[in-house]
Design brief:
Strand order of the largest sheet: 8-1-10-19-18-17-16-15-14-11-12-13
Largest sheet: 12 strands, mixed
Shape: elongated
């Protein structure tokens, strides 16, 4: 995997060593990085606020500022927000007192006052602020950084308790890590809706015990890894939008539809008639040249009316409405036209359908995506090899892993045992290839609805069918593309009153966004 597409996820000690090498403790080198981090946090928070209607023109920001770099980052994030919203206001609580500010945090405080005279209030700490009756649109947590060591002092713990219980804060955002989370966990932590990892992602953010306080993760790439991307052969890595750069580039001018591959999709049943249609609709948006779908013959005509760009082939059915073994000769006769397969969306629960899936994968050495009911240990056993991409959710992964916990080590072990690229879908989607685990922070609760996995299967399959794309890059690109489009959908339409298939209309914008980020 090209290291330009991902950055290493680091333990706190390694992150500290990296920053020491980059800045050497020199304020002249640290200040530009603090400005970059603060600006990035402010902009990212405004973007994510769009999921709940957008930051109000006269919005109120609460800043919890510690004495060090995280406090400075939070103050500069507030500066960015107030610059973009001239009627907005900020209230700042110096948790350790204003006099304790280190030089760069003090400089950030002066910058905030300079750009927003009359719009910044300093809260008196002795009143146990923030007071419960005040309402804030956004709270920025910059109390502790990744070098935090427990315990949390009593005064700070009281602030955190008040903020966590505050009924009038619409969105809580942590700078780098939620205060109280670090190499060692404190007794109380800031409970974030979003955490913005600045410069590098630290391993405590991915720990199961911190899931409820970290909220949704965002990685703000500040260029820290431009010189040393493969630190100590990091096993866990975070994916960046640049993974999509090849898809945003110009295509060869002498291309035709056969240039970009031919995907075969096998699935569908009367139990789940919509899944395979959504998979095909996504595949048609993936850039693949041709899509042929093999579906129950009773459904083919209706599907053709919904997606006429695909070739729909009716497959003989069982009495229960699943694909019947009698269709294998029909499939075999056309197989030499395919460059990749997707199998499983809507396949149904019949054992006969699962056995058929095993027979199908034995017929070819093509790359194959297995999803939904095709994710059976027996099917994987029939198709061992690096040409396979599996797309399980948590329950399906348990089936493949024999009940083992879904941590990074087990993900790599299952990928190694099966030879497959394993994509474990979830709030943080993880892609394992046996050696590394790639983490995608794109997407969010807008994907927590039926059909989103079928769309992902179509995207990954379409990318895999294009001959230049190997399984690991295809999986990573599909996951990031799917997630970025979901982010754009949520920012435009909100998280609730949307349908999974609306994500398809945001795929072009996601590619443009990724191209701009490169």
């Amino acid at each position: 995997m090209n290291s330009a597409w991902s950055d290493p996820i680091l333990p706190c000690a390694e992150a500290k060593a990296l920053e020491a090498r980059l800045f050497g403790g020199e304020e002249a080198r640290e200040w530009p990085a603090m400005q970059q981090a603060g600006t990035a946090v402010g902009r990212a928070a405004l973007e994510d606020f769009k999921e709940i209607g957008g930051f109000p023109a006269a919005g109120r920001v609460l800043v919890l500022a510690g004495k060090g770099h995280n406090g400075g980052d939070a103050l500069l994030a507030a500066k960015t927000i107030l610059e973009q919203h001239p009627a907005a206001q900020a209230a700042v609580l110096f948790v350790g007192g204003e006099r304790a500010l280190r030089p760069l945090a003090w400089r950030a405080w002066r910058e905030l006052l300079r750009i927003a005279p009359g719009r910044v209030t300093k809260l008196p700490p002795k009143k146990g602020n923030p007071e419960g009756r005040g309402e804030y649109d956004l709270c920025l947590d910059g109390i502790f950084g990744f070098q935090f060591r427990p315990p949390v002092d009593a005064a700070t713990a009281e602030v955190l308790r008040r903020v966590n219980a505050h009924p009038g804060i619409r969105l809580r955002a942590a700078v780098d890590l939620p205060s109280g989370v670090g190499g060692e966990a404190g007794d109380i932590t800031f409970r974030a809706d979003f955490t913005y990892a600045t410069g590098s992602v630290k391993t405590p953010l991915l720990a199961e015990r911190h899931r409820d306080v970290v909220g949704r993760l965002r990685y703000l790439d500040l260029g820290f890894f431009e010189a040393e991307n493969n630190i100590a052969g990091a096993v866990d890595r975070v994916l960046k939008p640049s993974v999509l750069a090849p898809l945003a580039a110009l295509r060869a001018p002498q291309s035709d539809k056969r240039t970009f591959g031919h995907l075969f999709v096998i699935g569908g049943s009367r139990h789940y008639p919509g899944a395979v249609l959504m998979c095909v609709q996504a595949a048609l948006r993936s850039g693949v040249g041709l899509v042929t779908a093999f579906v129950p013959e009773s459904l083919a005509a209706a599907y053709a009316a919904r997606a006429p760009e695909a070739i729909w082939v009716g497959w003989p059915e069982t009495p229960a409405g699943s694909l019947a073994p009698e269709g294998l000769p029909l499939f075999r006769a056309q197989l030499d036209r395919a460059t990749a397969l997707v199998m499983g969306p809507g396949l149904g629960p019949e054992r006969g359908a699962h056995a058929l899936a095993g027979e199908i994968v034995k017929l070819t050495d093509l790359p194959v995506v297995l999803d939904a009911d095709a994710l059976q240990p027996a099917v994987l056993a029939a198709v061992r090899g690096e040409r396979v991409v599996c797309l399980p959710h948590a329950g399906e992964f348990q089936r493949l892993a024999g009940g083992r916990e879904a941590n990074s080590a087990v993900l790599r072990a299952v990928a190694h045992e099966t030879g497959a690229t394993v994509v474990l879908k979830g709030p943080v989607t993880r892609i394992a290839d046996g050696d590394r685990v790639y983490h995608s922070f794109f997407g969010g609760p807008v994907l927590a609805r039926g059909g989103s996995g079928d769309l992902l299967a179509g995207l990954v399959g379409g990318l895999l069918a294009q001959s230049t794309c190997e399984p690991v890059p295809a999986a990573c690109r599909g996951v990031v593309w799917h997630g970025l489009a979901a982010d754009l959908l949520a920012r435009d339409r909100g998280q609730v009153a949307v349908q999974a298939t609306q994500l398809l209309d945001y795929l072009p914008a996601a590619l443009r966004l990724a191209s701009d980020a490169c």
